[in-house]
Amino acid sequence: MARKPTKTVRRALVVDDEVDLADLLELTLLRMGLEVDKAHGVREACACLDAEEYDLCLTDMRMPDGEGLEIVRHIQNKGLDVPTAVITAYGSTQNAVAALKAGAFDYLAKPVSLEQLRTLVKSALRLDAPASASGNGDLLLGESPAMRQALDLIAKLARSQAPVYVTGESGSGKERAARLIHAKSNRGEKAFVAVNCGAIPENLMESEFFGYRKGAFTGANEDREGFFQAAHGGTLFLDEVADLPLAMQVKLLRVIQERKVRKVGATNEEEIDVRIISATHRNLAKCVESGTFRQDLFYRLNVIELRMPPLREMGEDILIIARQVLARLAARQGLLVPQFSSDAELALQRYGFPGNVRELENVLERALALSDGTCIVPGDLQLVVPECDVQEGVHEPGEKYPLQDYLDQVEKAAILEALEKTRFNRTQAARILGVTFRSMRYRMERLGIQ
């Protein structure tokens, strides 16, 4: 069970075998109003964590009796609610990424910048502050296993500073997921800046990302902040990050590692406190293989991967999302919200939605305009629904095209196998397949299973 400190004075644990650095960290934290305990090795630190309640842990990576990662894992295994930052050697990308993947809240590079340390501590101690939830409850909807898995991971990611890489098809809600991570995090009150990397001309990228000083180039008539400065204290969402040119990837990597930016035309750097969430519908690993994306940047961005499921994997969630989208569209136009006929609901669930939620929104906006205002029927949706029974047998078994026919064949085979195992007990079969009974009944009806 996670422990919640009830004391008013916050307590931190500093773990470092270098006495001078431990004393420096202790002095900085004391000046910030924290009580501080020190440990000089892994075993001593774990003993302290078992005996006391802490609001923060700062640990060096390498010590005589082990590594800081062991302390991070000890906290995770014990279920302790202690944000942990790991202090790594300068430029040690591999150690920093390993720490974040193990569950560390953040990391600091040696030599430790006291300003960065203060920023990190303030972020960690805001974790228990209530994040602004207004307007974020409907960012992602659904009760399907695929969506529940995504939402559970989002809740965990919100309590970390680790970079997140969101994958998924176009229109599957990658930006909505990023906004929800931000809203639930201790950065929720700060700015969320979304950037489409593929929409910025290459010659403007550096000035757009890092800002510029007056007179830096023709037309620079005043100082201007970039995306990183605008997102200071909050979250920077890099959509379609695979579209970044290689020259910009090098500069982005340096900013992520150093946590400093230099405006175009400036001589000095300024520290920034930004969490990076990136996304793309392309396979970034294949981009690395082809040489269009830097491997070191890929590892920096892909610390934790969040996969957003396509709409076709979400079963009855399609209707939940459709009703919410329809209500929003109707409210925007000042109309009453029409109902879906049973045939329209079946048509929505049978359609593959290659464009996912974005396509669903377009379909419903059209249906709202075509309907009689009280009920939406299949004709209003104008969907071309594959006739599974007609298509069955036309293609060779195992042929993967058209894709929807192949997926239907796989789904039908899995359902029939589960039914045979349970002697056609649909309730038990649904439990084996990990779906609800209603979803099982719908799938059998859609695939023509009697």
Please, could you describe this protein's structure?
The protein is an alpha/beta fold. It folds into four domains: 11-125, Rossmann fold; 145-307, P-loop containing nucleotide triphosphate hydrolases (Rossmann fold), CATH 3.40.50.300; 311-381, Helicase, Ruva Protein, domain 3, CATH 1.10.8.60; 388-447, Orthogonal Bundle (Arc Repressor Mutant, subunit A), CATH 1.10.10. It is 45% helix and 13% strand. Strands 2-1-3-6-7 form a five-stranded parallel beta sheet, sandwiched between helices. α2 (42-51) runs parallel beside α3 (68-78), α18 crosses α19 (426-433) and α19 packs across α20 (437-447). It is globular, with a radius of gyration of 26 Å. The two termini are 47 Å apart. Residues 1-6, 130-135 and 388-398 have low confidence and may be disordered.
Record keyword descriptors for this entry.
Helicase, Ruva Protein, domain 3; alpha/beta; Rossmann fold; 13% strand; disordered N terminus; 20 helices; globular; 16 strands; 4 domains; 5-stranded parallel β-sheet; 45% helix; 450 residues
CATH architecture of the largest domain: 3-Layer(aba) Sandwich
CATH superfamily of the largest domain: P-loop containing nucleotide triphosphate hydrolases
Helix residue percentage: 40-55%
- Given as residue ranges, the uncertain stretches (5+ residues, pLDDT < 50) are 1-6, 130-135, 388-398
Main sheet makeup: 5 strands, parallel
Strand content of the residues, in percent? 5-15%
The total strand number stands at 16
> What gyration radius follows from the Cα positions, in whole Å?
26 Å
Fold-level CATH name of the largest domain: Rossmann fold
Structural class: alpha/beta
How many structural domains in the coordinates? 4
The whole-number mean of residue pLDDT values reads 84
Lateral strand order in the biggest sheet: 2-1-3-6-7
Molecular shape: globular
> How far is the N terminus from the C terminus?
47 Å
CATH class (first level) name of the largest domain:
Alpha Beta
